[in-house]
Amino acid sequence: MSDKVENSAPYQPWGEETRGWRIGVTASVSVLLLIASGTAALLSVSSSSALLAMPDPPTKPDKVQSLPGLASPLLETHYAGFVTVNETAGNHLFYWFVESARVVQRGEAAADVPLLIWLNGGPGASSLTGLLAEGVGPYTLQADGMTLLPNPFSWHRMAHVLIWDQPVGAGFAYTERADGFVSSMPQMATQLLAGLRAFFALHPQYASSPLFVTGESFAGKYIPAFCAHIHRENAKRIHPPIHLVGAAIGNGVLKPWLQYAALPELALALGYATERSAT
Question: What's this model's pTM, rounded to 2 decimal places?
Answer without folding.
Answer: 0.78
